[in-house]
Amino acid sequence: MATNNFEALNREDKKNLIAEAGRVTDITDPKWGHPDGRDFWYIDPALNIDTATLYNPEVSDEEKMALGTKRQAAYMEQWWNTEHSCTCEKYMVPGCPEEPDTECEVWVIKPKNIKPRKNRVLFYIVGGALVSLNPNAYPIEKLCEEHKCVGIVPIYRLSWQAKYPAAINDCHAAYKWMVDNADMLGIHPNKVVLSGSSSGGHLALATGFRLKRYGYDPRGIVTVSAQTDDREKDGPSNYSGVWDSVEQHDGLLQYMGRNFASNKVGPEAMPNHATVEDCIGYPPVFMHQSELDPDILNNIEFYTKLLKAHSFAEYHVYGGAHHNNGVFSVVKGVGEPNEYSMLVGKIFDTNMEDCFRYDLRRPWVVEEYKAAFKEKFGE
Fold it and tell me: 208 with 194: CB under 8 angstroms?
């Protein structure tokens, strides 16, 4: 259906369609979905209007700043005015070594029955197209309670506030502060798992490369529908009511700025910019993707690099699911659970627990690589 036919549709038809960026996307037809996932397929287009405005290249920076600031203030007010099952504390921490003068806000989430010290850590990065950070929309407390861990949540700068590498610098600052203050926080710095969905998954994977460069060694990374590349490939992104290829293009363009689709930036910007050599010694990874995620082919390519680098990597693709669909329908407690979505949620929780319970890191791969490099090229 062409966009120029959009105005000819009647009001009832328009409820099921969203027009933007020169196209009309059908977001309600469940024919693409897994039969058990119909309850989770419909997405109200009104939910995406503000988000799309914040990465729309035709909207001025001033308008984005005004809208984004107002929206974030509302999200923060909602969080701090809500009764929580965990204790929540807020800290302002020093910037990372690459931006030392810029402080970062960090939240510490603790289940009420947590041990006084040496606790596991869930370093959770909230998603939202890099233009929105709404902790109310993510199951941070639920994950901390189920996996008996302390949550560390970086409140990173969004793309309408500062371009790349601001968000990565903030995640780095939060991680460094966490390790430096492990005793005060009652955590074990050797039992940290990074996680996030959508852009939160993207930042978790990218932060993994930053941490590797600085000598940190997290226990693992578990992601849902993470973006890994800004260089477009032909993929199966037919449509999605949540996030499709046009939206991803605009969102990453807003984040990367002049570095968009540039081979001059590495995996700390977009994980699939990594070489196989970059992936040697990378933390264990469990990636969960949906069939209709727009950059699924890029993600498979990134997973292949991890395999070639002999890093521990596990990759799940869920057929008949759109962006974030499936895993979060269970983890977030959305809709009526069904057999398919419950299975997906169980796999996610098992992967998270595996990272905590087992040490899946492979330090010998790094040593073998260094020895082979030395043998071939000398010191």
Answer: yes
342 pLDDT above the threshold of 80: no
Average pLDDT over residues 66-77: 95
Closest-CA residue to 361 (of 303, 283, 304):
283
* Nearest in space to 210 (alpha carbons), one of 166, 256, 252, 157: 166
Report pLDDT for 202: 96
CA separation for the pair 166, 254 (Å, rounded): 13
| pLDDT greater than 60 at residue 74 | yes
Judge whether 198 and 323 are in contact, CB under 8 Å. Answer: yes
Angstrom distance (rounded) from CA 315 to CA 299? 9
DSSP 8-class letter at 283: P
Cα separation, 263 vs 275, in Å, equals 11
The 10 Å Cβ neighbour count of residue 344 is: 27
225: nearest Cα among 202, 207, 208, 204: 202
- Going from N- to C-terminal start, the domains of the chain cover 45-377
Find the mean pLDDT for residues 54-63.
92
Supply 118's token pair: 């040496």
Alpha carbons 328 and 218: distance in angstroms, whole number: 24
Question: Tell me: the pLDDT tens digits for 96-144?
Answer: 999 999 999 999 999 998 988 999 999 999 998 899 998 988 889 999 9
Nearest partner of 227 among 266, 257, 271, judged by Cα: 271
- Would you say domain 45-377 falls under CATH 3.40.50.1820? yes
Residues β-bridged to residue 18: 25
Q: What is the mean pLDDT of residues 287-291?
A: 88
